[in-house]
């Protein structure tokens, strides 16, 4: 099929289709001119063009006012869909999206793009451009305020931290600070002199100072991780951070993705400038592109660009280069083209106001319900982070006559549907369930304990600093356990001990693991999903060799 050079022909077909449908019609030129909003003398030229495209059959009459015969052979919808498919198959997704916008076919475009991408994916020979179909719109991409996991693949590509945590060696390695060391309570970071933000501004130690101090502000996510900072000083190319005590979590905190160094962008506050291997190209709510930063100070990405399109959930087996699933709590089958990652687990949290016997009884009922209703579809978990501290599920078991359940229970409505069989079982035990919208009023709630690359930081945050931790622990207990960690010779072992206490005291009941999955093109390489559930764009490449 020949693609139209502009949208005029399509608009003319749309006007005719709306008026006549596909029935054979007899009409005069004046009527056609009115329908197509054109002059009478242009009618013949327009109809001839549409006929040559194979969209209509048209037999002109002779003389003024003479009737002509018209029949639409291909409907506007059919023709527009073919045009969109042709552009997609040719790799011209931007042009396809433009046509969809003009004719208000955005929803159809989002629904159909995974299927249309098949032909492009199979035939495309470019090895430097990734196209990913994702089930979400452009998220907030400010590293310090990031709460949407979907922003992770973007933030990790566009921003850098002072230091990196290497999971295998469990060591901290240089990043924006190419030298760093500690003396007493002061950490010294020498900032690289050759790094620029994506807007061209040179990175300076003063930028780093401002970001570190911003993390201490009360309304910042996990600001508690930075409260040990007493002062931040700039000494030429060095940043000197003095702590109030020898905080074992400090380096873990500044190596986290949320601690990436950024430069404020007043025009778009949710999209600050970074220093990373990729920078923004196109950026709209449903379509965005990351372009290789050719001036990057570290290892360059292999891909020239990574393009993301928001599609609606339709046929999950259709795949372009990369079709991203939404997070899943069900078992994910193994398949060569399917990549999966565990994101952590769901847990049933108990308010500190519930006494020990009630928590223990609720745990017992939970285990019964998990075995009966959930273990066939989910991977049941018996710990939050460390499998070595998992309790034997039989340890929860008690005879039904010894259960000490409350007369009523306030359940946080958010996420509660995931465990509806449990609430039904409690009703059978004459427990009155009241669903509440406010977290502060809930006796029990379901939390997603998500894990990242640094297990120490995950343990510390979720067990001692998170909103859930503050509701599960008394203030005294929280401060007591925080002090234990801060003074412990082995931080990891102490955090595992605290998790074990959570489980033994039935403050939280692990439910099942959360996972994430991607379909990938067979030539895609470097698609390792990290523990945050996203890929490192700078390491992805296409292998176009013949097998």
Automatic annotation (TrEMBL):
Domain named Solute-binding protein family: which ranges? 172-310
Q: Which residues form the Transcriptional regulator SgrR N-terminal HTH domain?
A: 26-108
The record ties this protein, via SUPFAM superfamilies, to: Periplasmic binding protein-like II
Question: Pfam families recorded for this chain?
Answer: SBP_bac_5, SgrR_N
Domain of life, per the record? Answer: Bacteria
Q: Which GO terms describe its molecular function?
A: DNA binding; peptide transmembrane transporter activity
Name the keywords, alphabetized: DNA-binding
Q: Has keyword DNA-binding?
A: yes
> Which GO biological process categories is it annotated with?
peptide transport
Which intervals of the chain form a coiled coil? none
What InterPro entries does the database record attribute to this sequence?
SBP_5 (IPR039424), SBP_5_dom (IPR000914), SgrR_HTH_N (IPR025370)
Report if keyword DNA-binding is assigned: yes
Output this protein's name.
ABC transporter substrate-binding protein
* Gene designation: oppA
